[in-house]
């Protein structure tokens, strides 16, 4: 291979190059420009002795890319991350590598950007101060909080954030004064859900993490934690009540246990699922008398869109 070596873009540089709000805007722009998530190839998973290797390829007119991620369940006892990996961005025509990016940070940036883009019209249909409840304490929990704050800044006040975790004592005190940490399964968590305008589920739970009868009719629920057909964070009852948004119907019916089990329990039909592309483009209007539920699978096109935005900004501002 000839020419200058392609850059490695690490976690700190990714954060400096593209803000959460800009990531949301990149996802919205791609969908409005005609990107169809249904065209994405399915991810592949290979079991290895000590975990799994996941591969997520995608392409667009300007580029192609693949995320390669390892999942090592036993790393939690060694001090190493459970999930590690790299993203390689290629030129669309020559397939020459253009950049290598840190995959976990790319995922941390793009996943909440997709969530907020999918439910954007519902988030901004009122100016009522938002009470946000987040189940989980990992990067996606904090990432969703940061993205919601970034996007709602200037249009909707954040009244407070409640983080629901299994063992509050195991987590450091929140840096933000408006964040409360409460234990899962108790009255504090139930009351927080009852008052919430936005509920985010970003856990490894395989069973529903809250009672959906507590959810307000005008609430927005985002579920990103489960990615297997037999695991879910949200019960079928919410599917009966809500506008249900997915990235792609076929992918959701293959990979999203929340959706798969709700369909099996006849809480919803595949025909009732709404694609995020139709919401972002304005083809579907979300009424205010029903909750809005977005169930994310996490797809390859999302990584490619954000990776292209990062590398484009890097080319414009190499000093960052």
Automatic annotation (TrEMBL):
InterPro entries per the UniProt record, alphabetical: NAD(P)-bd_dom_sf, ODC_Mu_crystall, ODC_N
GO (cellular component) term, any one: cytoplasm
Domain of life: Bacteria
SUPFAM superfamilies named among the record's database cross-references: NAD(P)-binding Rossmann-fold domains
Pfam families: OCD_Mu_crystall (PF02423)
Name used for this protein in its record: Ornithine cyclodeaminase
Natural source organism: Planotetraspora kaengkrachanensis
């Amino acid at each position: 291979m000839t020419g200058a070596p392609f850059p490695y873009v690490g976690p700190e540089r990714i954060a400096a190059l593209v803000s959460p709000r800009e990531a949301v805007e990149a996802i919205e722009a791609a969908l409005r420009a005609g990107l169809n998530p249904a065209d994405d190839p399915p991810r592949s998973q290979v079991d290895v002795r000590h975990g799994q290797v996941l591969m997520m390829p995608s392409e667009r007119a300007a580029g192609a890319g693949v995320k390669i991620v390892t999942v090592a369940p036993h790393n939690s006892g060694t001090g190493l991350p459970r999930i590690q990996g790299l993203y390689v961005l290629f030129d669309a025509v020559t397939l020459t590598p253009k950049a290598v990016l840190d995959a976990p940070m790319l995922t941390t940036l793009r996943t909440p950007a997709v969530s907020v883009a999918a439910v954007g019209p519902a988030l901004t249909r009122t100016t009522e101060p938002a009470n946000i409840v987040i189940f989980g304490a990992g990067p996606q929990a904090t990432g969703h909080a940061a993205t919601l704050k970034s996007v709602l800044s200037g249009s909707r006040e954040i009244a407070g954030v409640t983080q629901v975790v299994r063992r509050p004592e195991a987590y450091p005190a929140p840096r933000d004064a408006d964040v409360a940490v409460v234990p899962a399964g108790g009255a504090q968590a139930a009351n927080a859900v009852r008052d919430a305008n936005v509920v985010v589920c970003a856990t490894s739970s395989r069973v529903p993490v809250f009672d959906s009868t507590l959810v307000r009719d005008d609430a927005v629920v985002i579920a990103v934690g489960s990615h297997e057909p037999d695991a879910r964070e949200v019960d079928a009852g919410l599917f009966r009540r809500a506008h249900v948004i997915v990235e792609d119907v076929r992918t959701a019916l293959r990979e999203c246990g929340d959706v798969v089990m709700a369909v099996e329990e006849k809480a919803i039909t595949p025909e009732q699922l709404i694609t995020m592309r139709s919401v972002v483009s304005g083809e579907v209007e979300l009424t205010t008398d029903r909750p809005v539920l977005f169930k994310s699978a996490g797809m390859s096109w999302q990584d490619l869109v954000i990776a292209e935005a990062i590398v484009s900004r890097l080319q414009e501002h190499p000093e960052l």
